Amino acid sequence: MQVRDLSEVHEQVANLFPWPEKAADWDQYRLSKDQIEFFNENGYLPGIKLLNDEQLEILRSELFQLVDPALHDNSLFYEYNSNESTDPQTILFHALGEWRITEGLHDVLWNPAFVMAASQLLGDKPVRFWHDQIFYKPAKKGGVVAWHQDYSYWTRTKPVAHITCWCSLDDATEENGCLQYIPGSQRWGLLPKTHLAGDLHGIREFLTEEQQQQFDKAKAVPVKAGEAIFHHSLTMHCSGENRSTRPRRAFVINAFADGVISDSDEPLLQGVPVVPKGNRMEGQFFPLLFKGI
């Protein structure tokens, strides 16, 4: 069954996230000076509340539909991997493009709590959408996401003015595969691209001795369901296996400061028309989410 392509709608369709009517109404979503300084120093910022209980349940229900190909048409996804894990004993569901399919995962792009934080962490810039992702690690056999830098997969756009928002739909713990970070690694520069669901520590062969020492100081960052972690696109991060008796589900919003351009004459995402090299990223698939206050 063909579903409506929600990429044609550049505003909320279900009004799941009330949009502030006055400039002062945005203050409740602003990050503090200390939070911004923490992000600039460490390359990530955890514990940002994005979803209430009602919103959580809606997005969990939508994700449940999307991870089962029998329940939903997945033709609008840019990528759809029912199991991207390279270990046959584990499962890592990973897909891109859910904003085109379900109303909640579309509308979350226009969540005021997300766009305000993203704008501040990008230096108070207007925020434009890049792409989204969903991850599902089933109980007891959820696979890993290897250590990597997001921008190593995004060099087809420039300059480096990107940010990632990872939001958990379950309590994320060390046991079920929460994110881990290497504080300050956003200052390492660009490293080689590794297989996202391959050897957890594969990136280590490319590190200097000094980077190896910092690598050994990696931090596990648990968060509650409905909370997000924002990180710089060059910050090293990973997530381990889900060894717990409950699932670990999350969605990701990748965005960049308005003005980023294409650096490729090839399609930037599967099924998306080419944005010629040197042209601004904009249009149907890269909407402006927030102009600023």
UniProtKB/TrEMBL annotation:
The species this protein was found in: Segetibacter aerophilus
One MF annotation (Gene Ontology) recorded for this entry: iron ion binding
Superkingdom assignment: Bacteria
Q: Which InterPro entries match?
A: Phytyl_CoA_dOase-like (IPR008775)
Family matches, as PANTHER family: ECTOINE DIOXYGENASE (PTHR20883:SF48), PHYTANOYL-COA DIOXYGENASE DOMAIN CONTAINING 1 (PTHR20883)
**What is the name listed in the Swiss-Prot or TrEMBL entry for this protein?**
SnoK
- Cofactor requirement: Fe(2+)
